[in-house]
Amino acid sequence: MTTKSAKSINLALQGGGSHGAFTWGVLDRLLEEESLVIEGISGTSAGAMNAAVLAQGYTRGGREGAKAALDCFWKRTSEYALFSPVKRTLLDQLQGSWNIDGSPGTWWADLLQHIASPYQSNPLNFDPLRIVLNDIINEDDIQSCQSIKLFIAATNVETGHARVFLRHEITTDVLLASACLPFTFKAIEIDGVPYWDGGYMGNPVIWPMIYYCDSPDIAIVQINPLVRKGTPTTPLSIINRVNEISFNASLIAEMRAISFVQRLIDKGGLESPEAKRLKRMNIHLIGCEEQLRDLGAASKMNAELDFLLFLKQLGRVTAEAWLVKNWDCIGKQSSIDIRKVYFGSTMGQTPSPPDHTPQTA
Q: How far is CA 21 from CA 157, 212, 237, 274, in A?
């Protein structure tokens, strides 16, 4: 598709454990679209890994280098999964299920999290992800990638605020902080400040791409289900759903703010010189919620190579369909209705925002 006119876009990459391999597939396909220029990437947790590895590979070898770097990261991740006690049971394998809810390792890990903190159960702070990153990550290559702006989010444990690390600040510790689940690993300290997973306050953060990027287009690669029908009834399913809701909350809040500003712009409600500086953002969504939801939340801990490759292919197919359907929207308009997707107003869950600006006394 090299005959297309060039377009620029920003990417917002969610975290979600091994489901980040879906994003691997999306990026793999987008990097093949030479007419599509990636200006900035915001990433959290697995999204942060994808963003940093892509930038490193891009520095070394352009688009092909980025694709190769992502392949290397995810395949190396699967190698360490061979030693994990959290695996599919034989019955799961025979049934073709990718979920690991029935794994004794999953039960043990869940029980351990409820009776001991990582400061007691993992005093040496062993983290296979650190080993993978130490093997693969070159901080200089990431920080010197002038072609792509990076924004990596982590949660400040002391203040509860999101800390966004820019490209020149990104290190292995920053990536680990963005993916630090507090019930599994000790907080990652950076300059004396403890950090947990960035998903609690930004999964991912959107605002840096509004302020620091020129392109008005943001494509969210969504891997965390917004909707999951039914009431969870087991302890594990309840915890998993609470985490999904928590990790989507900040993104929904940012979408609400963007939608509100868009409507003010469309209705001519921004008259002051300061307000007129606000730009209209075009929001896009690359996701396959139904299939990712059906995999189950526990499958986010499944890092078998076959599963990761399945997710990669699903991501590639989803990205291809998105490009075909929405290419003409890039640079012109949003390809989703933000209120329908993120407010749930069409399902009777949330009243639609008012059509007027709130009046002050």
A: 27, 27, 22, 41
Three-state DSSP class for residue 232: coil
Instruction: Give whole-number Cα distances, 280 to 179, 212, 219, in Å.
Output: 31, 14, 14
pLDDT in tens, 202-251: 999 999 999 999 999 999 999 998 998 899 888 778 888 898 899 999 99
Euclidean distance between CA atoms 138 and 73, whole angstroms: 12
Is pTM beyond 0.85? Reply is yes
With CA atoms as reference, report the closest residue to 251 among 220, 209, 295, 212: 220
CA gap 60, 320 in Å, rounded: 26
262, 197 in Cβ contact below 8 A? Answer: no
Sign of CA dihedral 240, 242, 247, 248: positive
Dist CA 316 CA 142 (whole Å): 24
Both tokens of 148, joined, read: 């792509």
- Reference 47, options 264, 278, 273, 220; nearest CA is 220
Secondary structure of residue 71 in the 3-state scheme: helix
Are 13 and 47 contacting, i.e. CB atoms less than 8 angstroms apart? yes
C-alpha triplet 134, 137, 138: angle, nearest 5°: 115
Query: Which residues does residue 10 pair with via DSSP β-bridges, in sequence order?
Result: 40, 218
Q: Pull the structure tokens for residue 19.
A: 């489901």
* Positions of E strands within 122-274: 149-156, 162-166, 188-190, 193-197, 217-222
Q: How does DSSP classify residue 353?
A: P
